[in-house]
Design brief:
12 helices; 79% helix
Amino acid sequence: MNIHKKFFSKIGANYLILGIMAIIFQIIIVNIISIINPEYLGDINILTALSSLCSYILPFPIFYWLMKKLDDVEIEKKSVSAKTFILYTGITITLMWIGNIIGLIITMLLSGAMQNDISNPVQELINSTNIWINLVLISIIAPICEEIIFRKFLIDKTIKYGAKVSIILSAVVFAFFHGNLNQFFYAFLMGGFFAYVYIKTGKITYTIILHAIVNFMGSVVSLILANSVANIQTSSNLIDALVILGYFAIILIFILIGLYGLTKIKKARFNGSKTQISLKNPFRTVYLNYGMILFILFFIGEMVYQVLG
């Protein structure tokens, strides 16, 4: 195995360790709580908070230590105008909808073939938890943690191999790490775009905000919308009608902006990120190594378990 293949194998192994540590911490903490007070395990809000704690917060020091062993390349920082950021927001929302539609079609086809409904664990979680839990954990903490882990750490290590390698790898790792088919496609599309934005600007703050906007719309706003839909089905309510119309009007505007923005994205010189190392066989080097193969197989296993479960 050559030096570059070993490098990407370490990357894959580190993200595999992160995924395994999340499960180990969940098992440990659930067992501790079951001893202290088993009733807490029946509270979906507590379980959601624990999931967030175990997925990112607790494993972070070990993951940080592992990733620090790999060399960084600093990306030159560049601010963008409000107009450009609105364009980025439109693209993000458009990719979210495209990915959601693809995921929905595929899960429907699989459900039909298996004659069994495939649940969406994330949507079920959002619908079951308190709106404030959705706001704090899903709309604030998750975007910060995920952008640092899947964009900054990953791209700073791999940008020396070129923007294309970093963008695709960030999308692949981010999509598989979600561990379920419902999220895979939009996580892949948005993960790739967030990587593009980070490389273009060198500022992780931009991708955190974009990520937070999407998560906020998919959690807090979706709960408000669902409540308005339920209310309007039982009684005529002007406020609920305005909420529904306002939501779809805003989404439509941003999708139109996003579609326009996607036509404008071209091959460009990424800010301060010239390719330092050109790979002869990028796919083989980046993905066909022990660490990355084990990482992908592990999370495919999680997806299969989710589909069959």
